[in-house]
Amino acid sequence: MNILKMTRSDLLALNPEDVKRELSPEEIVHIAKMLGAFWTYDYEAAAAGRIGLHAELKSGLHSDGFFVSRILLEPENICRIIAWQLVLKIRSRLKGSTPDYIVGIPDGATKLGKVVAEIMGSQLAEMQKVEGKITMVTVIEPGKTLLLIEDFCTRGTGFIESVLAIKASQTSVGIFQFDPVIINRGGQQVITVDCVGKFDVLPVVEWRVQDWDPKVHCDLCDKGSEVIKPKATDENWLRITTSQQ
Asked: What pLDDT sits at residue 24?
């Protein structure tokens, strides 16, 4: 089975039961690109005069790459395949133990967390994002353990907010000290949560994209590229993914 030669149609026809091996980073990124979920700035096109657009992240940084987990995880078979990739990483870290609860950080990993919990036989916990703020919904019994699942990591902002939201209302919950993610795009190895501890980033894929603080300097702004927020609207995602064609 050569994932790297598969078309979109091939991927959508894949049986998750046939993809239980650990996929390479290139294979995961190929799947994301074929499904239209992963955009990267085309520097060769820019050199040829097609400057195009670049991305503004939630943090305000500017970037030459962007990943939309909603698009990647929308097909049920692909969601289950990606969930299995996370489970393989998690099991290698846990060495036989199983979390009592698993929760996907909203909104990007909510569906993913549900599938990972099902595969691992853990109870599903729920978090919600209300008016832009992450809150813990499920009340977990004292002494039980919880594993958070995330779609991607840039600076760890969403993970930190989630851990603090849990600890603010349920101090006795034992949160596993790592952050399983599909793609680690920011190069973070450890996320530090004040007054809680350090959490290792556990990615399926390490795929570094460049980002810049526009208050200091942005390479792509210097080229004349306009910045937009890719997830703000479907139109924005279409604009950025076609801007250098």
From this structure: 96
DSSP class per residue in 33-90: HHTT-EEE--HHHHHTT---EEEEPTTS-EESEEE-HHHHHSSHHHHHHHHHHHHHHH
Where exactly are the structural domains of the chain? Answer: 3-70+210-242, 90-206
**Of residues 140, 82, 92, 141, the one with CA closest to residue 113:** 82
190-193 and 62-63 as β-strands: parallel, antiparallel, unpaired? unpaired
Per-residue pLDDT of 9-43, as tens digits, reads 999 999 999 998 999 999 999 999 999 999 999 99
Cβ neighbours for 144, distance < 8 A, ≥ 6 positions apart? 100, 101, 173, 174
- Class assignment of domain 90-206? alpha beta
